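Handout, section B. The chain below has 355 residues.
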Amino acid sequence: MAIEPVTELPGGGALRLPRARVVPLSAPPSSYTAAVERYLTGAGIAKSSARIYRISLTTWGWMLAGEAAPTGPARRGAKPTVFPITSIDDPALPEVLAELAAARADEMDADTVNRELSIARKAIGWWQRQGWITCDPTIGIERRPAPPDRTKSLAENQIAALWRLGVALREKTFWKMLYESAARADEVLCLNVEDLYPQDKRGKITAKGGATEWIHWQSGTAQLLPRLIARRTRGPLFLTDRKAPAGTPTLDVCPETGRARLSYRRAEEIFEENTRLLANPLASPEDIEELDGWTLHRLRHSALTHDAEDGTSTPMLLARSRHASVRSLERYARPGVDAVARHVAERDPAARRRT
């Protein structure tokens, strides 16, 4: 945003010089939605990250239009009001936006709120550099403190219970692949059939930053994949149950079935809905709709934690997680509840005497 320069005068006071004009690099898009797409392609956002960015920026689309963003089932298929990107410069918007963001933050977990705020600020900064807008209405909105959650790793009996759920083949395969590969959910959802090397139990993914890397799975996934793929030879690996709606990008449509690539949001919803009883074992089935299930990220977290508990070396954990630094790996390498319980039990003097 251009700042009006101020020159101090010798006798006191100040002389304000004319404000510098920002010359747009290109004509502003016709709508906020179009600006989001221009950002995702123009800023070089990796395909694996673009889905998460689009979901977050769609959420901000409601709030930047002065409306509360829908949550839960109400959000499925909903689209924000169409408005011009230049309306972000409305001087009344920051106050309204702060109230809407605070209300949303009270309903969502801190990690989600902070991630969405970070994504919005990156997009706004890019739009400013294009000269399409001059203001950042998120200034003044603070990140929420996120206390560390030491229970993200699922216990071994919880993982076993997950495999016993009576779910569709697509979900069985997806969840198995996430756990066995320790990959990120958005990376796996971006897999195409032609990216798979079944004989080697590996697949080629586009990781954070756009790098091409490998993920590896085990026999559980290997046994399910042929049934999921059937006779398909190309196109998205994980598909929706229905035909792709008009306007779906070609890369996200199976050329053989016409069905669309499964979205991260829908995959998360399905996992959360199916794991509510597992996450709340003492809850009544009548109350289960009001409770939360697990998140897909907990499968990656659990896989890496279980590897660390089994003595996997740090270099191998880095290779599995595809983190660049040991510091980023620390949150996964904490022993889980089962490992701590075994450690305590093995050192129980009374138990040793009984043996």
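Note. The first strand starts at residue 6 and ends at 8. Compare this with the example in section A.
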